[in-house]
Amino acid sequence: MDHGLFTISLDNIGRRFNRDWIFRRVNFTFTSGESYAILGPNGSGKSTLLQVLNASMGPSEGKISYTLNNAPLSHEHVYQHLALAAPYLELIEDFSMEEMIDFHFKFKSYLPGTDKQQVISLLNLKGGAGKQIRYFSSGMKQRLKLALAFCSDTPILMLDEPTSNLDQQGVDWYLQLVGQFTRERLTIVCSNQPHEYAFCKHQLNISDYKN
Ligand SMILES: Nc1ncnc2c1ncn2[C@@H]1O[C@H](COP(=O)(O)OP(=O)(O)OP(=O)(O)O)[C@@H](O)[C@H]1O
């Protein structure tokens, strides 16, 4: 599996909303083949940092830089190289599961060895294939978001609160996907639940960057 070697480097990054600094002086490098947990209590700034990392939000101070296969990559191209599953990233409710999968993979490639049928069987949602997503349970929606992200052929995988709405069986399913689909990728998990980030070798705690 060759996703390309990716790095994200933060040089004294800070972000504020109005007068409130959410985090400051973050110096950190994220590298392919490694998994990272961004930790901190509710409202501490995990999602904000993730949005800065995926270049959908700019930092208020400091510099962020990206490389792909050792060549600099400009901010506007970063989204092409990442797959994101997050509570604020909505599925298209009018679509069926199959339509949603087709739509997603118009923009992303399937990870080598996966295809639509494999995504569907991975989801294991009995009778769900033709049903509109608006009628899915919250756990089914979460599984779909995760399967789309895991099966995208991108060097970066970003997961914000990956097991929200999942029951124990869903958590076990998520951990199985982690084992299967994160190798050689740069994986970043925002979480405050140990069971969903325990596999991450590195941890970055937002509370350490409050002043
Ligand atoms: N666009 C915005 N404008 C103003 N304040 C914002 C904005 N986005 C986030 N915030 C504030 O920034 C802080 C950090 O929010 P963020 O969602 O990053 O935290 P979090 O650690 O991901 O929280 P949770 O664990 O609850 O998901 C919060 O106080 C939030 O209200």
TrEMBL record:
GO molecular function per UniProt: ATP binding; ATP hydrolysis activity
UniProt KW keywords: ATP-binding, Nucleotide-binding, Transport
Organism for this UniProt entry: Mucilaginibacter straminoryzae
Cross-referenced Pfam families: ABC_tran
Domain ABC transporter, residue spans: 8-211
UniProt entry tagged with the keyword Kinase: no
Protein known as: ATP-binding cassette domain-containing protein
PANTHER family: ABC TRANSPORTER ATP-BINDING PROTEIN ALBC-RELATED
Classification via InterPro entries: AAA+_ATPase (IPR003593), ABC_transporter-like_ATP-bd (IPR003439), ABC_transporter-like_CS (IPR017871), ABC_Transporter_VariousFunc (IPR051782), P-loop_NTPase (IPR027417)
